[in-house]
Design goal:
globular, mainly alpha
């Protein structure tokens, strides 16, 4: 079953890469004037630390918001499209290295993918200010989850590498919801890790589950964002290009770091960015422009 899962993720990655590359070639003349250096740099840094368990969506959102390099309305799509291939690489690595019961792993990954299919369609139709509000709330949720881990409030987990009975059902329902929320810009890593710990699973089991879930749901969601042109193509290329290198360095060379101080800084920046998102919400009248209005 693991071979089937790896093959499925590989096929999805190839399909996504083909569609993404074709769209980039088509839209290359409309690239923004943002510098390549920070765009690729943030791709390397966020995916490096993503591989170590910090997550990439919230830090990337903070960078875009604080620098104004990417429009608020296309941030969710840019996150999903740009981080897609680096996350697939993470999944292939950790699914191979960490043994999780095949039925548990496959079920949670498929549930997340189904949630993403539904979520991406909703997000593409949201007005700009609703996206801002959603991102603001998402950032707070991620910051609180990270803070809970720093303060040891989060459950410490157990020894299980498989779920059965009511725990199996709860896990599938929750990760389905997380898959839908991922398309809005709330990273799946922190809440998925909290879920795995709360259900008594071994902390190591969180990595193939959360990375495998993202590796399936992000191509599915990203194809929708690409079709609706609801992402920033230059920023997405920046995230992807050095992001994969960051993943490989973190997984095979660095492997682990003392991250508590860095997580504290990240929490602070994320909360500040959340405030900025809420402050950017405009008065009613301009708020009701759909995120993909240019495509209607």
């Amino acid at each position: 079953m693991k071979f089937v899962l790896l093959a499925l993720l590989g096929v999805m990655a190839v399909i996504f890469a083909f569609v993404f590359s074709r769209d980039i070639v088509k839209r290359r003349r409309s690239f923004s004037k943002a510098s390549w250096l920070p765009l690729t740099g943030i791709g390397f840094v966020t995916n490096f630390f993503d591989t170590l368990g910090i997550g990439s969506f919230a830090p990337t959102t903070s960078f875009y918001k604080l620098t104004n390099m990417v429009e608020d309305r296309v941030i969710p799509g840019t996150l999903n499209v740009g981080h897609c291939l680096p996350v697939v690489v993470q999944a292939l690595i950790f699914i191979t290295l960490v043994e999780v019961a095949p039925l548990t792993l496959m079920s949670m990954i498929l549930a997340a993918g189904l949630g993403a299919i539904i979520g991406a369609d909703v997000v593409c139709r949201l007005p700009v200010n609703k996206i801002r509000i959603g991102l603001g709330v998402a950032l707070i949720v991620v910051a609180l989850a990270m803070l809970a881990g720093l303060l040891n409030v989060m459950p410490s987990g157990g020894d299980a590498f498989a779920l059965t009975g009511w725990k199996f059902i709860i896990a599938a329902i929750v990760i389905f919801a997380l898959g839908a929320l991922q398309t809005l810009g709330i990273g799946l890593y922190a809440p998925c890790m909290a879920l795995v710990y709360a259900l008594g699973m071994n902390p190591r089991a969180a990595y193939p589950i959360m990375m495998g879930s993202c590796a399936l749901l992000m191509p599915l969601a990203s194809l929708r964002f690409i079709r609706k042109a609801s992402y920033d193509p230059k920023a997405a290329v920046g995230l992807t290009s050095l992001g994969i290198i960051g993943v490989l360095i973190a997984a095979y060379i660095v492997k682990s770091l003392p991250l508590n101080v860095l997580k504290g800084v990240v929490v602070t920046v994320i909360l500040y960015t959340s405030v900025m998102m809420f402050r950017s919400v405009k008065k009613k009248g301009t708020a009701e422009i759909p995120a993909d209005a240019s495509q209607t």
